[in-house]
Specification:
Two copies of one chain form a homodimer.
Chain A (H helix, E strand, L loop, with lengths): L1 H28 L6 H39 L4 H40 L1 H37 L10 H45 L12 H42 L8 H19 L8 H26 L5 H24 L9 H11 L1 H35 L5 H18 L1 H23 L4 H13 L1 H32 L16 H42 L2 H4 L6 H34 L1 H37 L11 H41 L1 H13 L2
Helix pairs in contact in A: 1-4, 1-7, 2-3, 2-6, 2-18, 3-4, 3-5, 3-6, 3-13, 3-14, 4-5, 4-6, 4-7, 4-13, 5-6, 5-16, 5-18, 5-20, 6-7, 6-12, 6-13, 6-15, 6-18, 6-20, 7-8, 7-12, 7-13, 8-9, 9-11, 9-12, 9-15, 10-11, 10-19, 10-20, 11-12, 11-19, 11-20, 12-15, 13-14, 13-15, ...
Chain lengths: 718, 718
């Protein structure tokens, strides 16, 4: 009974979310598209984004099909279902990213037009609606995908399919394929998009702002369109894919752990399916929350955005408590879901403290950094890096506290200390991500406004419209900072849950010679060696991405300098620069640079398990989480702080030096250097680590039966 | 029998090393002191160094006495012996640092004089001899301290003193106090010296090189003397203390693990004392090796330096194999000691690849960074950071492989898999550090030459002498790079051994309600929470140190600019700058900034154990090692690479732009920015992490009985 109830609630709320997204999409499309020049600029961006996505999806297609065939072969009994789930997971993730990109590239000119004709509020409406298409779409697709696939496989597959794994655990093993597909695509989207966007941004800033002193988004800059394309492929599609894959992974981890409880304890409802129900409630709250964001005439839209988030959160809390009590379950489960949500908001809040001018109480890192910028570029880099390191502290503590509390509460549920405790840690992750529809809506709005601003600048539309966009951008800042921290918190709790799910999965394996991991003894050198290797993965991956951006930007910098040099008409505004060349460089570089890192991560994970065994593989995952969290937070927050340091120096509130004077230019150039260093930190390497951690955790869980058998074969060699 | 043999060998070779050091000191003192101007500059440096060390040792004295009283009180039975050992450990460490500093500050003018009068080889002789005083002194003091204290306590203390711990384990618990004293002093020396030296370096470079374009070490720069003082207090005294404390800790960890084996298996010789024997052999080899470094007329002294290291290494290998076979022990023990040494050299070699122009095969990171410097400061920072991240890979792999091999070999010794395995990991650490006398001799030589160069520049002596110093400096580069990696490898293997020693120590505890840690289950959230907290320690500590340098340098930059502004005669060379003011700023800042971090590390370690328990405390240590290794290698190597990028651009081999042209200045300024960012990375935060890890590991081991009892009291509260 409750099985069908949970599945149908999940499916229906997912479908509702998708349909509402499509409905809002139609509304957005009806807005005015603006002047011809705006349409022209926007279509350049649209074309650029499409050409990038076409190249990327072609590569992804080849990758997915190859891997699917491999999966079908190595898994034998479950091979075909897992391979199909994997392909569907990849396709769903690609579809979500694509839809977000289409909306964003079509909404930018409409937002620009609204800003020109109506000002602040109409522009806000268009941009936020467009963002919510992305937000509701990813929340909906995750639910529809997971519930329908579970239902389908449960009906189709006969019991005889499940040989090495019991049926319920086996069904979730199959769905791990779906999650794995979502994550690998997300990693490509995030890392590839991140390399693209930062190559363009860095190069445009260096040659444009520093060398030729032309303003941001100036149409004379050959990299201007590539920069705008980057905002879409990196910030919209990339972030969407990142949150989407964390969400799927959190639900999956909780389901695997729930299946373990179901197997041994038969709780009052199927604990494996309960996470779908909780996610469904969060999605319903998001759908309602999106409609609560209605800017009032004459009011700043910023608080409206936050209001939407607060209402969604509150609504979710009420819904989850009510439903858990109606189902006759222990209220602890509702509490931990809410604890997860609070942890996410807390981490977002601390990110904001370290990256915004406001700071907290007397502690104002960014203001200090503005002072450092007055000394030298080295001082600015050092203080940003040091504050980035410091910012790791509250977030990691927040995650540790949320984990320990959830575990302690869950340990008392009566399903065994570990089983109950760790299930509740996973539920906290599901709770954190439940409102991802709303969170993503407020986040995607930012890059759309950014793009609109660029279009207005390039279409040489009235200055007031640019001011309106800057205001919109600023009022979205808190929401953006919260999303950054939220994404990191979400993925880390999900990864901790996946870590537990991996251990649970070893326990349900039925392979002679392989026993479950009751304990992972870090005091044993092979586990410690595994942990050391795991800690290297985020580090090396970051290095590859940053070097990728750096190498790529060298090529683009050469190209921009060449265009300026060879055609002086570009700077005078008499001839059009060759935008396509820059887009081409960014695209080919991004695709070339992201493949080795991704493959490396998957291969090293499997190799560690095969050579050192399952205990060491668990150590590997643990080590990766520890170093990954540090790297992601350090780079995300340091990058954000450098970005805002530059923004403060560019803003009218900055009064140390008068704008345009020699001193102002010195400090501004230094702040641009900081921002350029921070760009690949915060938008390429940092956020990709979230997804990377999910990918390696899922690799370990999905390939577990294969790894276990290969390890037996490997140690048999000696 | 072999007990007395081991102890007396340790004691005698330690004494030999100390006496040889004193003998060489007398020889160095007999060299010519140079012109009056040289003596004058040198005495300014000497005075500055002494005033810093006086302030630092006063603070350290207060700290040590307070902590000793606390220790005497909380430990009851063993309180007095531990407190006394702790005080002696601190004093020994201070003495070692002080002697190194005295020699270095007296040898710099003598090296300068030799360079002026005799050129390359005589200058090399003076500098290397002075360095070897430091090297042999720290190796000797470690042996004398540990052996004599063990002997003494073994005679003095009645059996009735050992209540909660068996006698042999108890004796080593007492000696943990000695090691703890050595490490806390080392942390102050390294971190305090590091803040001092980089405050001066960064400020002198920024105002001198970039703003006023005067050369390095120019006497017109008010920070010139502070900069030279910094080389002595940071690079000589600091590095010496760092290697010294790793050495003591490695021997101690192996002894604790050996005591565990002795207790349960009665092996053919006392395994607890064997590490002293191995260290003694390494020290003997170092004494001989130092005398093998004799530069030939007309030959580059660089290869000589390496020859000394090779001979020492080979000699040690022969000695250890011979003695182990004579003692009738399994040859495996000799092999793992040599494996440790090889791991150290390998890590040193990879550091060299990432930080020197040479690179390895076609892989030349520093050359790439020179290209990046041509693009922009941001490109240079990004590529240096990314290569720094990448450099973590081979070193950590090297450590993991050395650990797994040593463990596997030791597991077959017949003393239980874990006991034998982990003992051999500790022996590998002892082996790595055994030749520290020679390694340190080649390292201390570098800063002495650096100082001599500064003195020559400031005494306006002939240009040829500066060229000779630059050559000497360059030929010491390989040795220096090897020492950097060696120090990190040494401390990480030592810390891994200490980690095991901590777990072993929990097993010998005899407190009702506390059981030994057979396993440390990272899959349990409290252990994972401990690991997360541990991983924060190196991160936050680095942040504190870098912010300390940054804050401090802001004050000094202001001061230098003020002096130039208020007295134009300084730049014209007609009036002398106020050097003391800069030394004062560096001193007071260093002392102020280093205290909070050190106390924090000790307190957080104890608090984690008390609140979350011993398992979580083990997780804490594990987490700290993982993140500490990454941070130390990243910062050390990135900093070294930026430093060398600048050196290449300043060298005659750099041919992209002609020196002095606008383009050259642009690229050079960028490279100086990179170097300035790298300075606190490689000389303050990075190397301090080594010592930090040792301090927290020793804190956990030393305070274990107290922590265990407080934890019982704490959980009793609920």
């Amino acid at each position: 009974m409750s099985e069908i109830l949970f599945l149908s609630t999940g499916l229906l709320s997912g479908l509702l979310s998708v349909f509402v997204a499509l409905y809002i999409y139609r509304i957005v499309m009806k807005s005015d598209e603006g002047s011809d020049r705006m349409k022209e600029v926007s279509s350049l961006i649209e074309k650029g984004a499409n050409s990038f996505i076409k190249v990327q999806y072609r590569i992804l297609g080849i990758f997915t099909i190859t891997l699917a065939v491999l999966i079908a072969l190595v898994f034998r009994d479950l091979g075909i279902p897992i391979a199909i789930s994997y392909i569907l997971g990849s396709l769903a993730s690609m579809a979500a990213g694509y839809i977000g990109l289409v909306v964003a590239t079509k909404a930018n000119r409409r937002t620009a037009a609204a800003a020109v004709s109506g000002g602040l509020n109409p522009a806000f409406k268009v941009a936020f609606r467009a963002g919510s298409v992305m937000g509701l779409m990813i929340a909906g697709i995750a639910l529809v995908g997971l519930t329908s696939l579970y239902w389908l496989w449960n009906i189709i597959l006969p019991d005889s399919t499940f040989i090495v794994i019991p049926r319920e655990a086996g069904l979730w093993e199959i769905l791990t394929g779906f999650s794995f597909g979502a994550s690998t695509v997300a990693l490509f989207a995030k890392a590839g998009g991140g390399i693209f966007t930062k190559t363009a941004d860095l190069s445009a800033d260096l040659v444009g702002k520093i060398e030729y002193r032309i303003p941001e988004d100036d149409p004379r800059n050959p990299a201007a369109i590539a920069d705008a394309v980057g905002d879409n492929v990196g910030d919209v599609a990339g972030t969407g894919a990142d949150i989407y894959d964390s969400n799927v992974a959190a639900i999956l981890a909780a389901a695997i752990l729930g299946a373990g409880i179901d197997l041994h304890f038969s709780p009052p409802v199927p604990f494996a399916l309960l996470p779908l129900m909780i996610a469904a409630l969060g999605t319903l709250a998001s759908v309602l929350g999106v409609f609560m964001v209605r800017p009032k005439e004459g009011h700043d839209p910023g608080p409206m955005l936050n209001r939407g988030t607060y209402i969604t959160t509150l609504l979710f809390a009420i819904l989850v408590v009510t439903i858990i009590l109606i189902l006759g379950l222990n209220y602890v489960i509702a509490i931990v879901a809410i604890i997860g949500l609070i942890a996410g908001v807390f981490i977002g809040f601390t990110s904001d403290v370290f990256t915004s001018e406001r700071g907290f109480a007397g502690f104002k890192p960014v203001s200090k950094m503005v002072d450092s910028a007055d000394k030298s570029a080295a001082n600015l880099i050092l203080s940003g890096y040091a504050y980035g390191l410091l910012s790791v502290l509250p977030s990691v503590l927040g995650i540790a506290v949320a984990m320990v509390i959830s575990y302690t509460l869950g340990a008392g549920l009566g399903f065994g200390e570990w089983e109950g405790g760790i299930y509740c840690v996973a539920i906290a992750a599901v709770g954190l991500l439940s409102t991802n529809g709303m969170i993503m809506s407020s986040d995607a709005y930012g890059p759309i406004v950014d793009n609109a601003r660029g279009i207005i600048e390039q279409a040489q539309a009235p200055k007031e419209a640019i001011v309106a966009c800057d205001k919109l951008d600023a009022s979205g800042n808190t929401a953006k900072a919260i999303t950054k921290g939220f994404a990191i918190g979400a993925s880390s709790l999900s990864v901790l849950a996946l870590f537990a799910a991996f251990i649970e999965a070893t326990d349900t394996l039925n392979i002679p010679g392989i026993s479950g991991l009751v304990v992972v003894n870090i005091a044993h050198p092979s586990v410690l060696a595994g942990a050391l290797m795991g800690s290297l993965v985020p580090v090396v991956f970051s290095a590859i991405l940053i070097l990728g951006v750096e190498r790529n930007s060298e090529r683009m910098i050469e190209e921009i300098r060449r265009q300026f040099r060879e055609d002086p008409g570009i700077l005078e505004g008499t001839s059009t620069p060759d935008y396509d060349k820059c887009i081409e460089i960014a695209t080919s570089g991004a695709i070339r640079e992201l493949m080795p890192g991704t493959l490396l991560a998957i291969i090293v994970t499997i190799a560690t398990g095969v050579i050192l065994g399952l205990q060491a593989l668990a150590g590997f995952l643990g080590g990766a989480v520890l170093s990954g969290l540090i790297m992601a937070l350090l780079m995300g927050n340091a990058g954000g702080a450098w970005d805002n340091t530059k923004k403060i120096i560019e803003s009218p509130e900055y009064t140390t030096y008068e704008e345009g004077t020699e001193d102002w230019h010195r400090v501004h150039d230094i702040s641009v250097t900081g921002d350029m260093v921070g760009d690949p930190f915060k938008d390429t390497a940092g956020p990709s680590i979230n997804t990377l951690l999910v990918v390696i955790s899922l690799t370990a869980t999905l390939f577990l039966p294969v790894i276990a058998q290969l390890h037996l074969w490997f140690i048999g060699l000696f």
